[in-house]
Structure formats: structure tokens, C-alpha cells
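Design request, C-alpha cells follow.
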């Protein structure tokens, strides 16, 4: 059986299990085992490579990063920081319509499971002032919640992409930040064009107080970002310092502290990271990546088509953010370049995959937001298809100018 056909079988196997709602970490490990079996990897070599990937410093560091991000999210939520943040925004927005954009955008700075649901009640209340349809409320809440996932370094997609490609996460964030700007700009253009202006609520002279409250509500995130980008500390160390700072400054009982820490040690999230890194290792050691290189040369129309199709279809069909990176990126490494991955190719594949995620009816944020606002999915798509196409078009234009022409 040709090597590329074996990889297609692995992908179909993964998609079937993901669609059946199996745990992604388990699915990836089973896919890893099937890859080793199809490419006739000796059992002893398979065990050795699995153990090497699972216990590597890179894998353990990634697990630590994930757990620390989960901890910070739970801390901010349970200590009421998000409520303070939203209340502060009401006094700070210079344009009344921005209340439809800023809450989901600011909440989006901290990744969390179905995070769009946190801002949905705010959009519901604000949207009633303009008598917005369910589709428009869904779009504003969903779109602005996801503008950061192209470049914000706390998102799992970027963390995994950096780990797989070996490109520093700061470099990926910097190169993909224009897409965050583009997504925000498109959202604001649509907002201003389709929602009538309205008088701003009176600030009652509380602007400076509100600004201070906003910064204080986000201080653990701001501290971590400062340590990562200004002091150039490692991501796991920066997040660890921020987490320790929250423990040192918060007034919690030992029972509350222990409960919060235990909730943050998400075993499934840890196993997912280990599974991704093991999958990446076995893809190389089994000879699967070599078969991709034979079927799709690193340059040419076939390679560029695969850079779009693999992550886009994986994102659209699964709706799982980590899946389009964790599954497709290891397979695309021969095209990215094993030694020095091409940042433009990585960017194009990432944006392609994330556009698939945005449009996926299986994406949890989209499904829950549509259900919350009782919107028709087809009506939401009518609004979302144009900005999504523009974002993909911008990524394709960059690929065309800098690599194809």
C-alpha cells in the first residue's frame, strides 16, 4: 500500500473517532499506534520513541504551560475579575456600539473552554438596545471572541504549533499579529456599518477609576506577557511566576487554594499534549513523513494545496482547535522544512486551519453561541463568510507574493 494512502487511512481513523466525541488525547495516541502498525515499525522501536517523546523536557514544559494557563483562567473567573473587567469597560468605551465588541474581545485574551459563553449574556443585554437579530448577536459575540487566536501566545493552537515546528512562539505571534488586526478591523467595520450609533453612557467621572480597575482585573495576564516579551523569560517560567504571584497576593483559605490547584491539573489536557508530541515523533520515526515528501514535493502546486487542505479540512470537520495543528502540522513538516521551517508556509497553514475552525458547525463556541441566542446557523454564515474569506485571501496573497511568484 502506498505510504500516502496509509496516511489517508490514519486521518480518516482520527476523524471518525473525533466525530464520535472520543477524547482527543486518546484519539491521537490510537492514531499514533495505527501509524506505527501501517508503516511496520518494530514494537520495541515504537515503545522507545513513545517514551522518549513523553518524557522529553519540551513535552513536560508544554504540559506545565497548559496547566498554568488553565489555572490563571480559573483564578480570574472564581475571584470575580471578569465581572470587574466588564463593569470597567462600560465606563471606558468611547463609542456605545463598542460594548458589542470589547467584552468578548477582552475575555478572549484568556483561553477557556467555550469561552464565548462568558460574554454572551453581556451581548444579549447590549444587543437589546438596538433590537439586534439573534444572528447578529451571535456574530459579534463569536467573531470578537476569536480575534486573538492568530497571535496571542496563551492559546493552545500557537503553543502546539511552536512546539511542532520548533519556531519560537514569539516569532509566530509577531508574524501572525496582522491577522488579529485584520480580524478586529473587519469586525469593527461590520459593526459600525450595521448597528446604528447611540449616545455613550455617562461615565460619571469614573474613567480613571475604571481604567485602574480594568488593569487590576487583568494583572496576572499582563504580568505573564511582560515577562515573556519584555524580559524574555521562558513561557513556562513566566506563567509560573504569575501563578505564584496570584497565590501570594490573594486572600484564600488553604482549602480554596487546594481546590483551585486540583481543578487546574487537568489530566486530559496534559495527556493531549503528550499525545501530540508522541504523534509528531512517531510520524518521523516510522517513515510516514518521508512518504509525504515522496507524494508531495516540498514546493509546487501539490504542496501548496496540501498546506491549505490538510489544516482547513481538519479544522472544519472536527471543530477542535488543537486538532488542526496537532494532527496536520506533523504531516506538513516536510513542506515547512525540517531544519529551518518556513514561517510564511507555517502562517498560511495556520490561517487556513483556523478559518476552517471558525466556519465549523462542530466548533463548540459557535454551537453554544448559536444555541444561546436561538439563531439560525445559515443566517450567521451569511454574515461570517465574507470576513472569513477576506482573512484567508490575505494569507493566500502573502503566500503568493512571498513564495509562489
Amino acid at each position: 500500500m502506498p505510504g500516502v494512502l496509509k496516511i489517508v487511512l490514519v486521518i480518516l481513523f482520527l476523524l471518525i473517532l473525533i466525530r464520535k466525541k472520543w477524547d482527543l488525547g486518546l484519539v491521537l495516541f490510537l492514531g499514533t499506534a495505527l501509524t506505527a502498525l501501517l508503516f511496520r515499525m518494530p514494537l520495541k522501536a515504537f515503545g522507545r520513541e513513545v517514551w522518549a517523546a513523553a518524557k522529553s523536557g519540551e513535552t513536560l514544559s508544554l504540559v506545565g504551560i497548559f496547566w498554568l494557563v488553565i489555572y490563571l483562567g480559573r483564578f480570574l473567573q472564581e475571584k470575580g475579575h471578569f465581572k470587574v473587567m466588564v463593569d470597567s469597560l462600560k465606563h471606558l468605551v468611547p463609542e456605545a456600539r463598542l460594548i458589542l465588541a470589547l467584552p468578548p474581545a477582552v475575555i478572549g485574551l484568556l483561553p477557556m473552554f467555550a469561552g464565548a459563553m462568558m460574554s454572551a449574556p453581556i451581548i444579549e443585554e447590549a444587543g437589546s438596545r438596538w433590537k439586534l437579530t439573534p444572528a447578529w448577536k451571535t456574530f459579534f459575540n463569536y467573531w470578537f471572541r476569536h480575534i486573538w487566536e492568530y497571535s496571542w501566545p496563551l492559546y493552545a493552537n500557537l503553543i502546539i504549533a511552536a512546539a511542532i515546528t520548533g519556531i519560537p512562539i514569539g516569532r509566530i505571534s509577531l508574524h501572525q499579529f496582522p491577522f488579529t488586526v485584520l480580524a478586529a478591523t473587519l469586525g469593527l467595520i461590520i459593526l459600525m456599518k450595521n448597528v446604528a450609533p447611540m449616545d455613550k453612557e455617562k461615565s460619571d467621572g469614573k474613567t480613571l477609576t475604571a481604567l485602574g480597575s480594568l488593569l487590576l482585573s487583568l494583572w496576572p495576564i499582563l504580568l505573564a506577557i511582560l515577562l515573556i516579551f519584555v524580559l524574555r523569560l521562558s513561557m513556562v517560567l513566566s506563567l509560573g511566576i504569575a501563578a505564584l504571584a496570584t497565590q501570594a497576593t490573594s486572600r484564600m483559605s488553604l482549602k480554596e487554594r487546594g481546590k483551585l490547584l486540583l481543578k487546574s491539573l487537568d489530566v486530559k489536557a496534559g495527556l493531549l499534549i503528550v499525545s501530540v508530541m508522541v504523534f509528531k515523533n512517531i510520524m518521523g520515526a516510522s517513515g510516514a513523513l518521508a512518504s509525504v515528501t515522496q507524494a508531495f514535493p516540498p514546493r509546487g502546486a501539490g504542496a501548496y494545496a496540501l498546506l491549505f487542505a490538510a489544516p482547513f479540512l481538519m479544522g472544519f470537520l472536527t471543530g477542535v482547535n488543537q486538532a488542526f495543528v496537532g494532527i496536520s502540522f506533523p504531516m506538513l513538516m516536510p513542506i515547512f522544512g525540517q531544519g529551518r521551517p518556513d514561517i510564511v508556509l507555517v502562517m498560511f497553514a495556520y490561517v487556513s486551519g483556523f478559518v476552517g475552525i471558525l466556519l465549523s458547525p462542530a466548533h463548540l463556541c459557535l454551537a453554544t453561541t448559536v444555541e444561546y441566542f436561538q439563531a439560525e446557523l445559515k443566517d450567521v454564515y451569511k454574515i461570517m463568510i465574507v470576513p472569513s474569506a477576506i482573512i484567508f485571501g490575505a494569507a493566500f496573497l502573502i503566500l503568493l507574493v512571498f513564495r509562489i511568484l
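Comment from the thread starter after seeing the answer: thanks! The first helix runs from residue 3 to 19.
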